């Protein structure tokens, strides 16, 4: 009897092959071509995830130890369950199993390093940053982790639900993948869809406490929601950080070295940052924060109805300082360029002479006080619609003496203290002043040369698309020595959209506002505006030459000076391109497009007024003494009147090619 009972007990306890049998059964039940889903326990023990979490902590995601597991580890594990073995792209970067997971974790790591260059939250007082920064850093981490999660919707994913059953189609409503699955890229996928799909994953990814943390800061949650739904502004600090981190991760996966990774991030930074948006955002913040004392003695601004007159030197310095504090480095280093940017993007109003700087007499009736200052004029309702600014008790009277406007650059606002004149070189439009002592020869400073070489990459003169013209190649900032680049010449109709080079062929009578080339003289050119829709390229080229002759004779723009667009060399007059052409378009042309300056250059070709290189090309290169920088431009024969006004600049020498 006892023997029988012992046999029954042994039979119940005899399971030596149970675990191997279970694995064999699982393998047999998974069809060929299907992936077995990672479980939560497997992911927690995964060496790759452990290593990424370790690097993530060292990279700057400095959350308290008590919340690290719930806020970071659990979030990463849930994200990994969603990503499984899916790649980040079909044939580009991280196009391997687990590519989406690896790319997302790498972007999160890079984002934690890059965010150190930013103040979080932006435009926040230092005493508040201490309390809010940690949750903002966590928000950046989440956005970086989820920036590409929508790519799972680019794929058709099928789940194996059992023998003899039809495969089920996976959708986000089913949650993380937990069954054997297979996937393929959908032929009908929308390639930009993932940029708008991140927000839907935020709630299922986070537990109660992390969600409570990010929603406790309304500004943070608004920024995160806008970014993850694809509606972030160009000046979104989260968007800027993640874009740079994304570029760095892609470069790393494609085999770039450390310098290449840094360069990719820097290029992405330049693409992400819109200077116009940053200027508007910063100006609005300064107005809302009450940074400017108004309508009193010692004030930095005065309100006249809907116009806010801000003293040019303080506003320039405050804007530049605020932008640099936020990590925005592409800020013009001098006030003239900064004001041109503000005017170009309609953030400030031009005066009657179409200049950025206003000279006004301020009268405060309560103090019987009268003084003259130089201002920029802001239409404040467009910057802060909800704001309220009381008008001055007195008057603000604009003065018309344009010559005095050269007070506005380096110096004080009062007419009693003068300083150096503003550099009139302008790229996109705005204002210029008459400069005394223009015949003096001054070596070009390195900072000015840097500005000359920092043209946007898209504005390479369109010369590669024009017969007989050069390609101007911007020199990467990381290079210590200039690199010879072969010029590229492509036909117009194969390189640009037709509307980019379309020139109107209207033969009707041209309006009085834009006289034909035959009707123009150098004395009238500075009083005329040209409708580019009704002028041929040749007429625009003739107008440019007359404009150049007028500004040289009148001393309107600098010559042989820092920031100058004109330099006299031994072989003739070098006209810097594209700066001079853009200035002409900005000052004198109506209805201009981004490529209008290229049309002006094209119109110069049949006129024969400029000197060609021996190889028949139009663009010459000039070297700068004691510098490895170069200038590119058109070369014109020096007229007798020009020769009397301007000596040869010994610091600029034409390169013989």
Automatic annotation (TrEMBL):
This is Helicase. GO terms for molecular function: helicase activity. It comes from Aliivibrio fischeri (Vibrio fischeri). InterPro entries: HD/PDEase_dom (IPR003607), ICE_relaxase_PFGI-1 (IPR022391), TraI_2_C (IPR011093), Unchr_helicase_relaxase_TraI (IPR011119), WH_DNA-bd_sf (IPR036390). Residues 96-260 form the HD/PDEase domain. Keywords: ATP-binding, Helicase, Hydrolase, Nucleotide-binding. It comes from the Bacteria.
């Amino acid at each position: 009897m006892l023997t029988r009972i012992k046999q029954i007990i042994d039979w119940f306890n005899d399971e030596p092959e149970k675990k191997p049998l279970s694995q064999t059964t699982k393998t047999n039940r998974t069809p060929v071509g299907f992936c077995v889903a990672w479980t939560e326990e497997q992911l927690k023990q995964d060496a790759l995830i452990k290593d990424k979490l370790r690097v993530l902590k060292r990279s700057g995601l400095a959350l308290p130890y008590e919340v690290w597991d719930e806020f970071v580890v659990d979030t990463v594990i849930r994200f990994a369950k969603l990503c499984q073995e899916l790649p980040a792209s079909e044939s580009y970067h991280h196009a391997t199993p687990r590519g989406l997971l690896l790319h997302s974790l790498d972007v999160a790591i890079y984002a934690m390093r890059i965010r150190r260059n930013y103040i979080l939250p932006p435009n926040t007082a230092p005493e508040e940053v201490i309390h809010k920064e940690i949750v903002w850093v966590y928000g950046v981490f989440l956005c970086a982790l989820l920036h590409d999660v929508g790519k799972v919707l680019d794929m058709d994913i099928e789940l194996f639900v059992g023998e003899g059953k039809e495969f089920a189609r996976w959708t986000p409503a089913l949650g993380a993948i937990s069954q054997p699955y297979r996937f393929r890229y959908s032929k009908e996928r929308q390639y930009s869809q993932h940029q708008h799909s991140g927000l839907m994953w935020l709630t299922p990814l986070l537990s109660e406490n992390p969600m409570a943390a990010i929603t406790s800061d309304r500004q943070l949650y608004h920024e995160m929601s806008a970014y993850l739904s694809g509606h972030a502004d160009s000046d979104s600090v989260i968007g800027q950080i993640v874009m740079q981190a994304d570029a760095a991760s892609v470069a790393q996966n494609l085999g770039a070295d450390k310098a290449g990774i840094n360069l990719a991030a820097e290029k992405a930074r330049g693409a992400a940052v819109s200077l116009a948006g940053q200027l508007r955002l910063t100006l609005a913040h300064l107005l809302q924060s009450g940074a400017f004392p108004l309508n009193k003695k010692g004030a930095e601004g005065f309100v006249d109805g809907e116009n806010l007159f801000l003293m040019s030197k303080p506003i320039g310095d405050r804007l530049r300082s605020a932008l640099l504090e936020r990590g925005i480095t592409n800020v013009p280093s001098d006030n003239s360029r900064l004001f041109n940017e503000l005017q170009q993007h309609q953030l400030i109003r031009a005066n009657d002479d179409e200049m950025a700087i206003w000279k006004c007499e301020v009268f405060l009736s309560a103090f019987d006080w009268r003084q003259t200052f130089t201002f920029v004029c802001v239409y404040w309702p467009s910057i802060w619609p909800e704001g309220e600014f009381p008008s001055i008790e007195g008057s603000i009277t604009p003065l018309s003496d344009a010559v005095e406007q050269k007070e506005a650059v380096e110096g004080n606002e009062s007419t009693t203290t003068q300083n150096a004149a503003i550099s009139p070189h302008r790229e996109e439009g705005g204002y210029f002043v008459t400069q005394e002592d223009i015949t003096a020869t001054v070596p070009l400073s390195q900072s000015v040369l840097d500005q000359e070489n920092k043209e946007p990459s898209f504005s390479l003169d369109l010369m590669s698309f024009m017969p007989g013209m050069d390609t101007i190649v911007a020199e990467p900032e990381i290079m210590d020595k200039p690199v010879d680049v072969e010029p590229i010449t492509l036909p117009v109709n194969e390189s640009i959209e037709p509307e980019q080079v379309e020139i109107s062929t209207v033969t009707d009578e041209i309006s009085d506002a834009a006289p034909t080339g035959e009707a123009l003289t150098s004395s009238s050119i500075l009083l005329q505006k040209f409708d580019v829709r009704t002028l041929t390229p040749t007429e625009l080229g003739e107008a440019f030459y007359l404009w150049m002759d007028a500004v040289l004779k009148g001393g309107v723009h600098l010559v042989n000076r820092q920031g100058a667009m004109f330099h006299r060399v031994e072989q003739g007059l070098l006209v810097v391109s594209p700066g001079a052409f853009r200035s002409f378009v900005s000052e004198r042309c109506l209805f201009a497009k981004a490529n209008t300056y290229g049309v002006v250059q094209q119109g110069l070709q049949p006129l024969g007024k400029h000197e060609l290189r021996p190889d028949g090309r139009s663009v010459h290169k000039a070297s700068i003494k004691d510098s490895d920088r170069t200038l590119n431009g058109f070369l014109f024969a020096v007229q007798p009147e020009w020769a009397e006004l301007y000596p040869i600049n010994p610091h600029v020498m034409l390169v013989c090619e």
